[in-house]
């Protein structure tokens, strides 16, 4: 019998559950390695060579190199781990979060100052399908 | 006997720590956030605890995917502020209380809560930002702190009900400790925020304020709320709010005195919420 996952019916949202964690194990462990300055330096010097040291899929490596955080998350990444890539790039958490929304950095910041994204129309996947 | 006299609830947004550390707290963007804690800093001086039991979550800092403890109690004598990729925050080391921590572990595990015992752990912004908000920028933190880490990163995270009941077990454990310590328990994280995906930036003021109302007045009922309500209404990272129920469960059953309540949007991607509750007697 399948497990109940009601959170699959929330638009624009991927819940990092045991299944996603299994898929993303090496992607996230690679991110974790960027906590060490010497690893950050090696990654920056040659991203592909550094990524090839990890048992990641080619799709995961490509998503990292293109800094496509939505793709990284779809492939099992978790935002707190992916944030280590942002830190390596000198990006703030707000810049990282904003990059996933399709808004410009300025537009995202303005949305937050104006009170954030409303829950209205953003609770169920069918509400986005109509858009 | 030791006793829990008060509980504190606060968001632990990393950008708040960065704003303080970089001397930006008086900028117009940050001033309203820090003003909300002016009362709290004075309250800490007027009501100094002997020990703070600080419920927080690690953000892929001390715990990678190698090990994911649901509940982890820090029993060490000392905890270093972690390097989260930007260098460690320039804040004092956290001094633990190994004797009380070991006593709580012994009692709570015998009450059927399977805690992980942690004797070595660096602590990230989840723990140090609340200390900065409540204590400012001292040379040393005013008292020992017992870090208590909850997994809210990988689902399923513990339910609100389990967190609330764990708080009750912690209350009982503290009350059976012989030394007459004044203990505060803090629940941190939240409020509404979502840091990932096209829905990032979600904020729900109505949900947050109702959460504060219910946390004060009817926490046992609030503890029944399922995970999906947090995710849908307060964002995927709003789930951190289950940690507030641990602190609330550790309070007496009689209604608490509300000493302070504060709410502000935004701090970076997040709604900031803050409460101070005191036990009535």
How much helicity do the residues of chain B have? 25-40%
Radius of gyration of chain B, CA atoms, in whole angstroms: 17 Å
- Compute the CA-based radius of gyration of chain A: 16 Å
CATH topology title of the largest domain in chain A: Protocatechuate 4,5-dioxygenase, Chain A
Whole-number mean pLDDT of chain B: 97
Count of spatially separate domains of chain A: 2
CATH homologous superfamily descriptor of chain B: LigB-like
How many distinct helices of chain A? Answer: 10
- When the domains of chain B are counted, the total is 1
> Helix/strand-derived class of chain A?
mainly alpha
Low-confidence stretches of chain B: none
Give the low-confidence spans of chain A.
none
Largest interface: A-B, 52 and 43 residues
In CATH, the architecture of chain B is: 3-Layer(aba) Sandwich
Which of globular, elongated, flat, extended, rod-shaped describes the shape of chain A?
Answer: globular
> What is the H/E string of chain B?
EHHHEEEEHEHEHEHHHHEE
CATH topology category name of chain B: Protocatechuate 4,5-dioxygenase, Chain B
What is the terminal separation of chain B in angstroms?
A: 15 Å
Keywords:
heterodimer; A: 131 residues; 10 helices; globular; B: 281 residues; Protocatechuate 4,5-dioxygenase, Chain B; 8-stranded mixed β-sheet
């Amino acid at each position: 019998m399948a497990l109940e996952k009601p959170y699959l019916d929330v638009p624009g949202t991927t819940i990092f559950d045991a299944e996603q964690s299994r898929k993303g194990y090496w992607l996230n462990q690679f991110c974790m390695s960027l906590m060490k300055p010497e690893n950050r330096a090696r990654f920056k010097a040659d991203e592909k060579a550094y990524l090839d040291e990890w048992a990641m899929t080619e799709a995961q490596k490509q998503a990292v190199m293109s800094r496509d955080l939505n793709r990284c998350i779809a492939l099992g990444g978790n935002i707190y781990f992916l944030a280590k890539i942002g830190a390596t790039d000198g990006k703030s958490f707000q810049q990282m979060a904003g990059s996933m929304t399709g808004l410009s950095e300025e537009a995202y910041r303005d949305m937050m100052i104006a009170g954030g994204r409303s829950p209205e129309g953003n609770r169920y996947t069918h509400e986005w399908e109509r858009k | 006997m030791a006793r829990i006299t008060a509980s504190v609830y606060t968001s632990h947004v990393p950008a708040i720590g960065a704003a303080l550390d970089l001397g930006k707290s008086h900028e117009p963007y940050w001033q309203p956030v820090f003003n909300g804690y002016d009362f709290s800093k004075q309250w800490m001086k007027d009501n100094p605890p002997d020990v703070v039991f600080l419920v927080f979550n690690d953000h892929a800092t001390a715990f990678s995917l190698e090990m994911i403890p649901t509940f982890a109690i820090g029993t060490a004598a000392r905890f270093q502020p972690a390097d989260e990729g930007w260098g460690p925050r320039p804040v004092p080391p956290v001094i633990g209380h190994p004797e009380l921590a070991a006593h709580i572990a012994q009692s709570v595990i015998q009450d059927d809560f399977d805690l992980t015992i942690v004797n070595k752990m660096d602590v990230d912004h989840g723990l140090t930002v609340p200390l900065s908000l409540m204590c400012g920028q001292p040379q040393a933190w005013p008292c020992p702190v017992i870090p208590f880490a909850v997994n809210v990163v990988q689902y399923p995270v513990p339910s609100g009900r389990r967190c609330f009941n764990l708080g009750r077990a912690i209350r009982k454990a503290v009350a059976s400790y012989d030394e007459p310590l004044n203990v505060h328990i803090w629940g941190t994280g939240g409020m509404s925020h979502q840091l990932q995906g096209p829905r990032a930036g979600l904020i729900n003021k109505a949900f947050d304020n109702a959460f504060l109302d219910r946390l004060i007045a009817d926490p046992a009922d609030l503890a029944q709320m399922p995970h999906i309500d947090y995710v849908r209404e307060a964002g995927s990272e709003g789930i951190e709010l289950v940690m507030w129920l641990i602190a609330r469960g550790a309070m007496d059953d009689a209604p608490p005195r509300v000493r302070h309540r504060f709410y502000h949007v935004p701090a970076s991607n997040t709604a900031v919420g803050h409460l101070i509750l005191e036990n009535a007697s």
